[in-house]
UniProtKB/TrEMBL annotation:
Binds 2 copper ions per subunit. Cu cation A binds at H89, H109, H118. It comes from the Eukaryota. This is Polyphenol oxidase A1. Disulfide bonds join C11-C29, C28-C90. There is a cross-link at C93-H109 (2'-(S-cysteinyl)-histidine (Cys-His)). The chain holds residues 95 to 437 of 600 of the full protein.
């Protein structure tokens, strides 16, 4: 059976663990709501294009900054506030919910739920930001880390006076330090040029040969089953590598980006995940062999709960999010340099 949307009444404190710091409990359950609305595809007049974060113009940056400022200014109890939105990730990823039985935790990583969960999460986040600045066409930026010019933390996120800034990041990985898409905790000694080459090779390797749904998305995961059956290629690397690379190694749990419970407290998280989301679109349109999503109804009918821009609680299914153009958005077209980087 499909994974059912969690029962918010059963939400419990989440568990945070690290090898060195042990285990701790964190409260991150969302506010409750008596009503749940089923998701309906939005009406819109034009597609919004999510721009590459390193290419945005000052006018866009103003809007985005304003929206984030307003989100951070919402009262803590508002489900659309910055903290509550960050907590969405915590509750779904650190065992706040159960998967149909009290002793089986729900986990949206390490399985075929990874892409759809994050797509819907970002979708509602973007709608909230758009509503706050009264611009329904507002689209969030993506961190274009699969292209050489995007392989540093985008400048717009590193101004300490900006609401896009987060102080809990690795101090040695600020621009112009180049990202290592294979990062596993050790600093890469390669020259910049060799690192770019290595990163493009990682991208090719994770995107192109992984042509089946289960290699790309991750393994099937159904109601009542044990969490984390196996992750897809991109989730593994570079997705996880980038979380670890950004996270602050002075912090106990590598906050913010280095742990699920805190990752959503870094505004960069959403740009990172927009790129992951963009890669799902790109994967389906790669030349050659046709790549297809799962057709299993246990996947298609799995569902999640999110608060929308009007603070209504919405139940959305995987099948609702397969086509970003139905959701009203797409990505700015930029070069895809790794396509030619066959190792
Ligand atoms: Cu839900 Cu990048 O993790």
């Amino acid at each position: 059976a499909p994974v059912a949307a969690p029962d918010l009444d059963l939400c419990e404190k989440a568990t945070v663990t690290s090898k060195s710091a042990g285990t701790t409990k964190v409260a991150c359950c969302p506010p409750k709501s008596a009503n749940i609305i089923d998701f309906k595809p939005p009406k819109f007049s034009k597609i919004r294009y999510r721009p590459a974060a390193h290419m945005v113009d000052p006018e866009y940056l103003d809007k985005f900054t304003k929206a984030m400022e307003l989100m951070k200014a919402l009262p803590m109890e508002d489900p659309r506030s910055f903290m509550q939105q960050a907590n969405v990730h915590c509750a779904y990823c650190n065992g706040g919910y159960d998967n149909g039985s009290p002793n089986q935790e729900l986990q949206v990583h390490f399985s075929w739920l990874f892409y759809p969960f994050h797509r819907l999460y970002l979708y509602f986040y973007e709608r909230i930001l758009g509503k706050l600045i009264d611009d329904p066409n507002f689209a969030m930026p993506f961190w274009n880390w699969d292209a050489p010019r995007g392989m540093v933390i985008p400048e717009i996120y590193v101004d300490p006076d900006s609401p896009l800034y987060d102080e809990k990041r690795n101090v040695n990985h600020q621009p112009p330090k180049m990202l290592d898409l294979d990062y596993a905790g050790k600093e890469e000694e390669l020259s910049k040029r060799d690192l770019i080459k290595s990163n493009l090779t990682v991208m090719y390797r994770q995107m192109v040969p992984n042509s089946t749904a289960s290699l790309f998305h991750g393994k099937p995961y159904r109601a009542g089953e044990k969490p984390s059956p196996g992750m897809g290629s991109i989730e593994n690397n570079p997705h996880t590598a980038i979380h670890r690379w950004v996270g602050d190694d002075r912090e106990k749990y590598k906050e913010d980006m280095g742990n699920f419970y805190s990752a959503g407290k870094d505004p960069l998280f959403y740009a990172h995940h927009c790129n992951v989301d963009r890669l799902w679109n790109i994967w389906k349109s790669l030349p050659g062999k046709k790549r297809r999503d799962f057709t299993d109804t246990d996947w298609l009918d799995s569902s999640f709960l999110f608060y929308d821009e009007n603070a209504n609680l919405v139940r959305a299914k995987v099948r609702d999010c397969l086509d970003t153009r139905v959701l009203g958005y797409d990505y700015q077209k930029v070069n895809i340099p790794w396509l030619k980087n066959k190792p």
